[in-house]
Amino acid sequence: MKLREIAHARAGDKGNTSNISVIAFEARHYAHLRAHVTPQRVREHFAGIARGEVLRYELPLLGALNFVLHAALGGGVTRSLALDAHGKSLGMLMLDLDIPEPADGPGAGVDQKG
Predict the structure, then answer these.
(1) Which residues are CB-neighbours of 2 under 8 A, at least 6 positions away?
(2) Do residues 65 and 21 touch, judged by C-beta distance below 8 A?
(3) How many CB atoms lie within 10 A of CB 99?
């Protein structure tokens, strides 16, 4: 399954560093995110983009993980020749990460009326 099925992302940039937060839609999925959205997986997912260190900060009370990707913006937004190197586009790319489906399913317990 894609990460976007159980989480959303907020992102920004400063210089050549991208900051991406992954926030679980439901608190019950935070542990699943923590187990499967690791710095190593993120580094692999952004291979060729993030050329520096990938750090992860955990925010359990928010159900969120914050990733800092160094050397990820082609020298910085104002210096890069990339068409859209801004952190926000990298947030959308993060949500394309493949992760295992949670044992209780992505939408278990969610009211599907509509």
Answers:
(1) 95, 96, 97, 98, 99
(2) yes
(3) 18
**Interatomic CA distance for residues 112 and 114, integer angstroms:** 6
For residue 51, give every residue at least 6 positions away whose Cβ sits within 8 Å of its Cβ, in sequence order, or none. Answer: 70, 71, 72
In the chain, what is the straight-line distance between the N-terminal and C-terminal CA atoms, in Å? Answer: 23
pLDDT at 111: 43
Question: What's the pLDDT tens digit per position in 46-62?
Answer: 999 899 999 999 999 99
CA angle centred on 99, ends 96 and 104, rounded to 5°? 125
Q: Where are the beta strands (DSSP E) in 6-78?
A: 7-14, 17-24, 54-59, 64-69
How many other C-beta atoms are found inside a 10 Å radius of the C-beta of residue 10?
14
Q: Are 87 and 67 in contact (CB under 8 A)?
A: no
pTM of the model: 0.84
By C-alpha distance, which of 66, 36, 40 is closest to 53? 40
| pLDDT tens-place string over residues 81-101 | 554 556 678 899 999 999 999
